[in-house]
Specification:
Layout (H helix, E strand, L loop, with lengths): L8 H7 L1 H14 L6 H14 L3 E5 L2 H11 L7 E5 L4 H9 L3 E5 L10 H6 L5 E4 L11 H11 L2 E5 L7 E2 L2 E2 L6 E5 L13 E5 L2 H10 L4 E3 L2 E2 L10 H32 L13 E2 L5 E4 L3 H10 L29 H9 E4 L7 H19 L1
Parallel strand pairs: 2-3, 2-4, 4-5, 5-8
Antiparallel strand pairs: 1-9, 6-7, 6-12, 8-9, 10-11, 13-14
This protein binds pyridoxal-5'-phosphate.
């Protein structure tokens, strides 16, 4: 039997080889590698895709979050409310800005931030809410936007896993003050290396982001604030422009494969992801739950199937974050999820037959272990 790897980035690029080669050749021909026409065009195209007025291309998703916080002047003494059930980068970015991450629990259906928990953790030091559209599903934003409005807080969306995901018919990224995207190679829209973007419809924030990403320069050698070097390469922008043209078709394929899994795993005893009615799920990950997760993962691995855990240790229980003072039991839903979740292979290049084989093995495992 052929192995079924969790991802197939090689396959995706083989299919686009001619288009990508031409895009790269164009950049080599022009000889401009930093902040040139490809970056400017990709900023405009991707911002339009999200529905925001402007986009500022940066070096990674982590930088997008960090610079978004800095653009809002959030730093030491400030608190930012976010989740522990996320990629560590979300919380690392808050720490990079010098602010204190206040980690709250999630809604067990969507795995995303629980608005009631947010409301309970607002203090006079709170400056922003940082919801994460995890696994490709939008956060229920309305209650968060309402809280932010009432308390004068910024909303910074972490959209690293949700390119094209919709909330109430509009794409994520343009709902909050700022939307932060990662184009890490495994994302639904991935570069050939690291890259990220912040989208916003606030011209003042876009202006600050452009300063922050390049040494604080408004013009060359004239810094007006303390900036960084966090620019997207022309080569990455050129490749991302090619891939953006395929994103909607890839999303449609992801959704089709997710439906296939749902159909095949319907009565299997594993818990399937909830696709909540307020949004359009883009299935960055297809995450099931099983109380015997580790044994199931092992069973799949023995059959050559790559399944992963996103994420095995909630951020508050990781060594670096002990200082936050949240021990085991502090965020029960996040902690329980971390022990049961399993991401099955799902990417646009995956064949229907592969989904059928994975689903059959999951079913077989559950029938056997239940009996
Ligand atoms: C939810 C989330 N936030 C932030 C990031 C950070 O993005 P990057 O790896 O591009 O720095 C990632 C991806 O790793 C992510 O999944």
């Amino acid at each position: 039997m052929q192995p079924i790897p969790f991802l197939d980035l090689k396959g995706q690029h083989q299919a686009l080889r001619t288009e990508i080669d031409a895009a790269i050749a164009g950049v080599l021909e022009r000889g401009q590698f930093i902040l040139g026409p490809e970056v400017a065009a990709f900023e405009a195209e991707f911002a339009r895709y999200t529905g925001a007025a402007d986009g500022v291309a940066v070096a990674s998703g982590t930088d997008a979050l960090h610079l978004a916080l800095r653009a809002c002047d959030i730093g030491p003494g400030d608190e930012v409310i976010t989740v522990a059930h996320t990629a560590g980068a979300t919380v690392a970015a808050v720490v990079m800005a010098g602010a204190r991450p206040v980690l709250v629990d999630i809604d067990p259906r969507s795995y995303t931030i629980d608005p009631e928990q947010v409301a309970r953790h607002i203090t006079p030091r709170t400056r922003a809410i940082l919801p994460v559209h995890l696994y490709g599903q939008a956060v229920d934003l309305a209650p968060l936007l309402d809280l932010a409005h009432r308390h004068g807080l910024r909303v910074i969306e972490d959209c690293a896993q949700a390119h094209g995901a919709e909330y109430r018919g509009r794409r994520v990224g343009g709902w909050g003050d700022l939307g932060c995207f990662s184009f890490y190679p495994t994302k639904n829209l991935g570069a050939l290396g690291d890259a990220g973007m912040v989208v916003t419809s606030d011209p003042a924030l876009a202006d600050r982001l452009r300063l922050l990403r390049q040494y604080g320069w408004r013009e060359r050698d004239r810094a007006v604030l303390h900036g960084y070097n966090s620019r997207m390469d022309e080569l990455q922008a050129a490749v991302l422009r090619v891939k953006l043209r395929h994103l909607d078709a890839w999303t449609a394929r992801r959704r089709e494969l997710a439906q296939r899994y749902r159909h095949l795993l319907g009565e299997s005893g594993v818990a399937l992801p909830d696709a909540l009615p307020y949004g359009l799920h883009v299935y960055h990950l297809f995450v099931i739950r099983s109380p015997r997760r580790d044994a199931l993962r092992q069973h799949l691995s023995e059959q050559g199937i790559g399944a992963m855990v996103h994420y095995p240790v909630p951020v508050h229980l990781q060594e670096a974050y002990r200082g936050l003072g949240l021990g085991p039991g502090a965020l029960p839903i996040s902690e329980r999820s971390a022990g049961e979740i399993l991401s099955l292979p799902l990417h646009p290049e995956l064949a229907d037959a592969a989904v059928e084989r994975v689903a059959a093995l999951v079913r077989e495992f559950h029938t056997r272990t239940e009996g």
